[in-house]
Amino acid sequence: MKISIVIGILFFSTLFACEKKDDDRFIFFLHNRFLEEHDLNELHPEFGRTEYLEIINEFKKSGFEVISEKRYGNVNVSEYAGGIVTQIDSLIKNGTEPEKITVVGTSKGGYIAQYVSSLANNPDLSYVFVASFRSSDIENFPEINYCGNILTIYEKSDPFGVSALVRKETSTCEIKHFKEIELITGMGHGFLFKPLKGWIEPTLKWANGNYELN
Predict the structure, then answer these.
(1) In a domain, 214, yes or no
(2) If exposure means fewest CB atoms within 10 Å of the residue's CB, which of 9, 80, 84, 115 is most exposed?
């Protein structure tokens, strides 16, 4: 059932049919790989259900306009990122300041977000990469070049997430703000399946331009 995709696309298209407010802030949310290949209510054998709608609701409750869709079919990361960049460009052309746009990605969604950062090449955009960096990425994905205000969040017990400081140091674009958060939940990669305060709250602060996270 692809209702979620339709909702995501229609939601984006209606942004321009309504009167845009000057103080609108936008979050593009890109979910994990498991949800891309399974239905909304399917359970991961170890981590349970991906609480996609609950995560989006946390963003909406905090006043953000959320642009998201449930992906299907193991999408190509860089190609999908190109589509997000097109949407971001449309927002900016319609008067949204890039400082009010944040791209948030978890796991595979975080890799898509990294490609968005590289392709958009706009130091005024903001990003939150959740559980989406491994040391081998420098060799495996040399084309990724961080650009923008970057927050990375990873979990100590998660083998799929470590400090991305080395990526920051090898990136050539301007990075005005960069912070990392290491969580200790004991949940491994499963921490991103739920809207835990440990990653949701700093994400909301970052998307509001609070780069000190205080």
Answers:
(1) no
(2) 9
